[in-house]
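Table S5 (text form). Sequence records supplied for joint modeling of the two-component complex.
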Amino acid sequence: MIQKELMTVVSQSEIAVNIFEMTLKGALARQIDEPGKFVHLKVGEEMMPLLRRPISIAKIEPEKQEFTMIYRAEGAGTSALSRKRTGDLVDVLGPLGHGFPVEEAAAGQTAILIGGGIGVPPLYELSRRLNEKGVKTIHVLGFQNKQAAFYTEQFAALGDTYVATVDGSLGEQGFVTDIINKHGLKADIFYSCGPTVMLKAVERLHAAPRGYISLEERMGCGIGACFACVCHPAADETGTAYLKICSDGPVFKAGEVAL
Amino acid sequence: MSRLALELPGLSLKNPVMPASGCFGFGREFSQLFDLSTLGAIMIKATTEEPRYGNATPRVAETPGGMLNAIGLQNPGLEKVIANELEWLKQFEVPIIANVAGSQTEDYVQVAKEISKVDNVHALELNISCPNVKTGGIAFGTIPETAKELTKRVKEVSEVPVYVKLSPNVTNIVEMAKAVEDGGADGITMINTLIGMRIDLKTGRPVLSNRTGGLSGPAVKPVAVRMVYEVSQQTNLPIIGMGGVSTVEDIIEFSLAGADAVAIGTANFVNPFICPELIAELDHYLEQHNVDHISELKGRSWK
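The corresponding structure-token record, covering 562 residues in total, follows.
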């Protein structure tokens, strides 16, 4: 159920250049039942930034009533968020959207998780859930460079992990799709989150017969009411059909959305 | 006796607070959060005769104390709105104000005729002020004679009272209000958004794909208050005021300016629980200030 709660900052640290890891505590954490869902944050009482910020969830610990987010401090909202300290409060609305269906992968199968930049975080909770279930996971993580990379060891603890950087300063030089081709990686199902260009390339790869992708867009309300974050479905004869990324997604079946 | 209940043409309102058109969809999303029957009314998303996809994204941009939007009247079209959305809304005890839009007079007339027949539609809101579509919309809202003529044509076919939503993007708002009053309007809703723009410093290009968008939120409130203040003194029509309302004090301010009721827009995006919260707080505020009924405050700033 969607709730609005003032949650308490348990911890916050900069884990890569401008990349922050923040853990929040509150009853709302118990409502997050699926990886890939997101929260919509109001950073302060101020009139600027006025709107909430959609942030993905990297780790859910319902028993501790906590969840962890990893985000990039870029604009006014996320920069203000990055200045929050332990004990501060954050106005959280969530959990929102539809996440990655863990049930689509069966025990004994292999899933390949492909993430790019700030699209990597939700794949971490997904990988934890898949491994818990007995699904073997392969991770392919793409970053700009070594300074922007994070969580590579945490992913490596869960399964084979390949890292690609644009400048080759960490892992192998190239894009995630180059790595998948080079190593001939195959799986029963893929899950991906990252920039749209990457998702487009991932869909064309067929590293697995089927998969799910998570999209990003500027959002207003985050609950499906404002029509700010719409996209076209792939099969649409009229041109007027639409999907809302915040409430129909952000996770969609590969091929469902016209990228 | 309720301090909040009031009667306006076509509308028996439990309270004077309702979500503004375009900021509440057709209510489905908010129904997961609270009982829609607590609302005074619901102004549903603009409906056009044919389905519309609207503009390309990005469709929203943030500004100090506000936001720009250029959605472009996205909606599933008259037929689906009646069959799916209005039908679904019938489970709630709340009057619907149907926002009617179009590109030409005939579109407005057709939508108004059909949608006003639906049981739970108690009033129409004629959208002559959307700044985000290429044809129609705002063109009808900036020329007094055109607005009057359109109001007249819609009045001829509508089975429920017609409120006209005024655009602030005019030199003389009173002239517009008087024109729609002459055209037979039963009420006025005001204001729609102010046309604005933001430019991305990295690309040097406008942030919105539509280039311009409608500014809303607390930033526009003083403009809205001023316009309600002017219009309420010059017409006899009831006014549903809107533009940046996000606190009880804002509701009081609109009331003092001359509004009978208020609509909540952008604030729904900041806090989706804002409408029921404000309804509860408003009752408390009036009690604290020994006001027996909200209507006592109406137009106090100029009376």
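Note: Helices of chain A lie at 76-82, 121-133, 152-156, 176-183, 196-205.
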